């Protein structure tokens, strides 16, 4: 068998450089994923600021990590730099959102902090839509001689969903929750719905409530069930979201009232969790205000029960396709959980 000819030196060098770039990109992506997981610790207490995560890496080891503090300060980068101390010099900073470029009375710009700490490289997962930064944070780092890369990250973007929904659509990110039977019912024909799912699924719902700034039900649900809409999980006491009722009527003190789905833009929230009946579900879906649809499916068949979603006014089956993609699936005790993300043009 004839021996293969070795690659020319130039071709071999190009191959090595390409392999190194691919390896670096894969490593960067993994570190950004880790920073996005850190960012989830900030939600929802970082409001009104977005929950951002930052990891400082030096010689393949983590030397600092941080996430946005309650109330929005300090930012994730400041927390990570404080933890790293002198080890931040020469490190790479992985941050889910572009480091801010604007100073405020509450603290310095994170791009300046990274420059002062002497990091060698910054990798951001999302460019900040805030016009006070919007590319200027990365530009300032480059002007200081720091390598600054924008590596568009789906994971980082997902972790910033509420902040980006505000910037792009001037409203909170909306998650709609439905607990349904195998045949798509949310209740018996007489309205009985407690309990559709088991205790594990109900605990999961409370963990989702704890991540929201506000929680919404319809007036019918409010009047019939008087739901507490709180978080009842050990260790998460006090994480109750602002209660909102969609109704033409009057709600008790401490409960926000809106009259139509499009008024959610008035809510002081980045994340809105909707526990919907059929009419509320239809009104939000028809208005295209749902970003994430979460289905808790119980292994029961009701037959003749109340449908999960009211009429959406579709004229053909083709209109229903191409709007949703599966984001998550898991088993919760005897019940199944599926989450779907809305496919949108950014």
Automatic annotation (TrEMBL):
One Gene Ontology term of the molecular function aspect: diaminohydroxyphosphoribosylaminopyrimidine deaminase activity
Cross-referenced PROSITE patterns: CYT_DCMP_DEAMINASES_2
Keyword Chaperone included in the entry's annotation: no
EC numbers, comma separated: 3.5.4.26, 1.1.1.193
Known cofactor(s): Zn(2+)
Catalyzed reactions per annotation: 5-amino-6-(5-phospho-D-ribitylamino)uracil + NADP(+) = 5-amino-6-(5-phospho-D-ribosylamino)uracil + NADPH + H(+); 2,5-diamino-6-hydroxy-4-(5-phosphoribosylamino)-pyrimidine + H2O + H(+) = 5-amino-6-(5-phospho-D-ribosylamino)uracil + NH4(+)
InterPro entries documented for this protein: CMP_dCMP_dom, Cytidine_deaminase-like, DHFR-like_dom_sf, Eubact_RibD, RibDG_C, Riboflavin_Biosynth_HTPR
Sorted UniProt keywords: Hydrolase, Metal-binding, Multifunctional enzyme, NADP, Oxidoreductase, Riboflavin biosynthesis, Zinc
Source superkingdom: Bacteria
Pathway recorded for this protein: Cofactor biosynthesis; riboflavin biosynthesis; 5-amino-6-(D-ribitylamino)uracil from GTP: step 2/4; Cofactor biosynthesis; riboflavin biosynthesis; 5-amino-6-(D-ribitylamino)uracil from GTP: step 3/4
Cofactor note: Binds 1 zinc ion.
One of the Pfam families matching this protein, by short name: dCMP_cyt_deam_1
CDD domains in the cross-refs: Riboflavin_deaminase-reductase
NCBIfam families: eubact_ribD
Database matches in PANTHER family: 2,5-DIAMINO-6-RIBOSYLAMINO-4(3H)-PYRIMIDINONE 5'-PHOSPHATE REDUCTASE, DIHYDROFOLATE REDUCTASE FAMILY PROTEIN (AFU_ORTHOLOGUE AFUA_8G06820)
Family the entry assigns: In the C-terminal section; belongs to the HTP reductase family.
Role description: Converts 2,5-diamino-6-(ribosylamino)-4(3h)-pyrimidinone 5'-phosphate into 5-amino-6-(ribosylamino)-2,4(1h,3h)-pyrimidinedione 5'-phosphate.
Protein name: Riboflavin biosynthesis protein RibD
Source organism phylogeny: Bacteria, Pseudomonadati, Pseudomonadota, Alphaproteobacteria, Sphingomonadales
Gene that encodes the chain: ribD
